[in-house]
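Crash report, auto-generated. Payload:
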Amino acid sequence: MPVAFPSISPSSRSYSPGNFPQTEFRAQNGALTVVRFGSRRVDSELDLEFQNITDADAALILANYEAVNRTWDSVTFSTASGTSGISGSLAGYISEAGGSGLRWRYAEPPSVTSVLPGRSTVRCRFIGIMDGA
Amino acid sequence: MQWAGGAVARVRSWSIQSNLDTLETTNLGQIAREYVPGLKSATGSASIFYHDDNASLRTLLDNCIDTGEPTSAALNLVWGTKSLTFEAYVNSVSITCNTGEVMSADISFTMTGDYSSITL
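Recovered output after restart:
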């Protein structure tokens, strides 16, 4: 059961749609042969940064990281969180809800930087995986 | 102007700049920048006629020009019925001596910690 990311809007976001799985062979004469393994992109990337949020919100993100990884699970985003400020089909890409078959998982543990008493900056990196389970 | 409890005589001028850092909390769902208060700070300067019989001025200079570890002291800026009091370090002293003129010392200071009292 996917776990919803807390309703915290990021201050910056970057997204990469990932690559199509393939292997390339380059002959000595320079000719390129490509073996394509699938017709769907994989390993999309999403970076979210939450600048100067309250420590309570930072704790919600850490709790989400634990909830997702306690079992093998994934994260979903909404317009109140990861897809805040965008609409239409672009939001579908970034939430990977447009039929890509990818599911967001944490690529690494969130990093928390304390800024002031009660304020922290949190950075999360996600990777879109095609779950074989 | 009082330094470490003693009035510094012959102050020609002084100034203080008080600052408040702001932390941006704008997120991607907003159309205007939003901030929360950050850290307070204050710096200032003073120009003082320098007489070697002025013990309080010597005390002030001793806080910066010292072979030991510099220490902070209470700085009280008073004008009329208004005043600002805070702990400060003297972090710059410029002593000028010209022929035919009274020696003067230009100092700058930096507040450490919060204001002790404010009467504005």
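Post-recovery validation: The first strand of chain A starts at residue 3 and ends at 4.
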